[in-house]
Design a protein that fits this description.
Number of domains of chain B: 3
CATH class of the largest domain in chain B: Mainly Alpha
Helix content of chain A: 40-55%
Order of helices and strands of chain A: HHHHEEEEEEEHEEHHHH
Number of strands of chain B: 8
Largest sheet of chain A: 4 strands, mixed
Strand content of chain B: 5-15%
Largest interface: A-B, 53 and 51 residues
CATH superfamily of the largest domain in chain B: Butyryl-CoA Dehydrogenase, subunit A, domain 3
CATH topology of one domain in chain A: Butyryl-CoA Dehydrogenase, subunit A, domain 3
Radius of gyration of chain B: 21 Å
Oligomer: heterodimer
Structural class of chain A: alpha+beta
Strand content of chain A: 5-15%
Number of helices of chain A: 9
Distance between the termini of chain A: 29 Å
Distance between the termini of chain B: 38 Å
CATH architecture of the largest domain in chain B: Up-down Bundle
Radius of gyration of chain A: 19 Å
Number of helices of chain B: 13
Chain lengths: 302, 380
């Protein structure tokens, strides 16, 4: 048992920090539901960060640590699925990866007509090349590029019996993303309440604000430990624990971070929405909190 | 980063389970009612702790020079997990080994170490903690119990309240005011519970048989050698102690066993089929594992000798939330069992989880500390 980063992990995060630094702030006046950057996507691919789980001496826990950073950036980029999920299915991803549950034309994040889709197909997983697939872009305020496949037929190589692994690592990847996005939202809010003054004092000095933000912070710290634990133990129960805990925390964090910002928090000019509207989508991916908690109950107690 | 237990840690847990298996009576749950504060468990601890001492399981985490095993903080935590899971058969002696003894080792004179450490290490004496007072609960620094200087020692006057195990204890680790008005005038005293002038009256309560007392100190004379540390050093000693106490009892292990048993009973009676009961059970279990994972993060820091930080309060609050969710689950779905007291474990967990948000500093105080020390929010 040693819950600190190893020197290698610290070095890896340092390198990622340098790579992602230009994308750690929002460009002025960006008035849109989400920010994307092909340069960031390319840098992550070329640098090999997406493939860290396949590197000798490294593993999926390292991919989780990287995802904690990438998923918290104001720019959205597909990373969790390619860095965490694909390697656990034995796939050299190296490129953006989309995770799809049937029906095939369900709306999904990051579906833009490039990269690879991993599709749950009964007990198997299909690997579909998305190049040339017809994609309908969807517009909804969820902080991610959204799309759905149009008139695609289920195809691609089949990995027999891989669906349980897909679901397990998808739950972990999702929980890591929730943890990262929630942490960014809470940190932004903590800074805001330290600066914003009303009635002659900072609003962060009010106990009503402090207690709720502290509760959000406890949840964020717990998600970090639970997701790292789930990646390290590779245990299905731990994966569902992390996912159900993270999903349950979303509602509180969305509400409180938005609430303490007041009206500025729902403007495009201020970046909070980049995280809160991601959380709104993530809390329902792979089903509701109750679905995930029930799945956990099934694994633990039958 | 490594989330796995070493072979040594696993073997240590097996050894503890073996000792518990061998020495707890077959009807332990029924007899003890898993009540740390009961007269039965208190008596039992005076036989059981010497056994632990012989097995090297009473103070495995203490330095070897003081009779300990010199083992790391994770061994200490594993010991706590296994003991709390069965209702803490060490009774209040868990406090001796968690923080009373270590505080004496750190701040005590040679004479104090001679007087107390051997007894604690033998597992024969019980300590209680004299901190809270009727007007000094969460605001502990406002305590008014006085220790007035006299020739050769002090006279202590005042009242302590909510003292756990006071009527069972041999000694009290107590705070009294030797001067000043707030933190600066507080000192620690190690007071035998026998001298005339001490009256410990049990307060009937919903948590445990002797878990709460009103303890009156009426002109209790103690020698100078009963003071731990310097005059006025009490607050800094107690701050250190509180960090060890807040993440001192792995309460989630008892709650986890109770939740498992509750689900087993629901399944036996065909009441575990609906999504809401299953989701509520899953939610409570996830909260317990969250509390455990944060506690392990705190212990990891201890194992490396880092000073305690705000993660202690983060972990404590997570524990409060988890225990509350278990209590809510039991209350909502195990009503019949609770009414008929059908299962000592379920009844005990329901009773004990009720105090998690109060003991060792109210949950709201933990949130204040998270705000101040973890989020660095401005003073209110």
């Amino acid at each position: 048992m040693d819950l600190d980063l190893t020197p290698d992990q610290a070095g890896l995060l340092d390198a990622l920090g340098k790579l992602s630094a230009p994308f750690a702030t929002q460009p002025a006046g960006a008035a849109q539901d989400f920010l994307v950057s092909t340069e960031l996507d390319d840098r992550l691919t070329v640098s090999g960060f997406r493939d860290v789980a396949n590197v000798d001496g490294m593993g999926v826990l390292d991919a989780v640590l990287l995802t904690e950073v990438v998923a918290a950036l104001p720019y959205v980029t597909e990373f969790a699925a390619s860095a965490i999920v694909a390697p656990k299915l034995g796939i050299q991803a190296g490129r953006p990866t989309v995770l799809i549950r049937q029906p095939l034309d369900a709306p999904v994040r990051f579906l833009t007509g490039a990269g690879t889709a991993l599709i749950e197909d009964g007990n198997d997983v299909r690997i579909m090349d998305l190049t040339g697939q017809e994609v309908e872009a969807l517009s909804a305020p969820f902080g991610y590029p959204l799309g759905r496949l149009r008139s695609a037929a289920l195809g691609g190589d089949r990995i027999a019996g891989a669906a349980p692994a897909l679901r397990q690592w998808w739950h972990i990847a999702l929980a890591v993303e929730i943890g990262a996005v929630a942490r960014a939202a809470v940190e932004l809010t903590v800074q805001y309440v330290k600066d914003r003054r009303q009635f002659g004092r900072t609003i962060g000095s009010y106990q009503a604000v402090q207690h709720r933000l502290s509760e959000c912070s406890v949840a964020v710290e717990a998600i970090r430990q639970l997701t790292r634990r789930a990646a390290a133990t590779e245990d299905l129960e731990d994966a569902l624990i992390a996912a159900s805990y993270a999903k349950e925390a979303c509602a509180r964090i969305i509400y409180d971070t938005q609430q303490f910002h007041g009206a500025i928090g729902v403007t495009y000019e201020y970046p909070l929405h980049l995280w809160t509207y991601r959380l709104r989508l993530l809390q329902g991916e792979l089903g509701s909190f109750a679905d995930t908690a029930s799945a956990l109950a099934e694994v633990r107690w039958g | 980063m490594d989330w796995s237990w070493s072979d040594e840690h696993r073997a240590f847990r097996r050894k503890i389970r073996g000792v518990l298996e061998k020495h707890l009576p077959a009807d332990w749950e029924a007899k003890s009612k898993l009540d740390t504060s009961s007269a039965y468990v208190s008596r039992f601890s005076r036989e059981f702790c010497p056994i632990l001492a012989r097995e090297g399981l009473l103070i495995p985490h203490w330095p070897k020079e003081f009779g300990g095993g010199g083992l790391d903080a994770f061994h200490h935590w594993i010991l706590g997990e296994e003991m709390f899971a069965v209702g803490e058969p060490r009774s209040y002696q868990y406090m001796n080994v968690n923080w009373v003894g270590p505080a004496i080792l750190r701040y005590g004179t040679e004479a104090q170490k001679r007087e107390h450490i051997g007894r604690i290490a033998a597992g024969t004496h019980i300590w209680c903690q004299g901190f809270s007072e009727p007007s000094a609960g969460s605001d502990l620094a406002s305590l008014t119990t006085r220790a007035e200087r006299m020739i050769g020692g002090y006279v202590i006057d005042g009242m302590k309240i909510w003292t756990s195990g006071a009527s069972l204890a041999d000694y009290c680790f107590m705070l009294a005011r030797t001067g000043g008005t707030r933190h600066e005038g507080i000192s620690v005293f190690l007071v035998p519970m026998e001298p005339s002038g001490i009256a410990a009256r049990p307060i009937p309560n919903l948590m445990g048989e002797f878990s709460l007392h009103e303890t009156v100190f009426d002109r209790v004379e103690v020698p100078e050698g009963a003071r731990l540390g310097e005059e006025g050093q009490g607050w800094s000693i107690v701050r250190q102690v509180m960090h060890n106490e807040r993440i001192g009892q792995p309460r989630y292990t008892l709650s986890m066993r109770a939740l498992d048993r509750a689900v087993a009973r629901l399944k036996d009676t065909g009441k575990f089929g609906g999504q809401s009961v299953r989701a509520d059970a899953g939610r409570a279990h996830a909260a317990l594992v969250a509390a455990q994972s944060l506690a392990l993060k705190v212990i990891d820091g201890r194992a490396k000798g880092h000073p305690a930080d705000a993660m202690t309060s983060v972990a404590r609050y997570a524990l409060v939330v988890a225990d509350r969710q278990v209590a809510d689950f039991l209350g909502a779905y195990l009503t019949d069992d609770l009414m008929s007291a059908a299962d000592p474990l379920i009844s005990a967990a329901y009773r004990r989880t009720g105090s998690t948000g109060i003991a060792a500093g109210a949950a709201e105080i933990q949130l204040n500390l998270v705000a101040r020390d973890h989020l660095h929010l401005p003073k209110n």
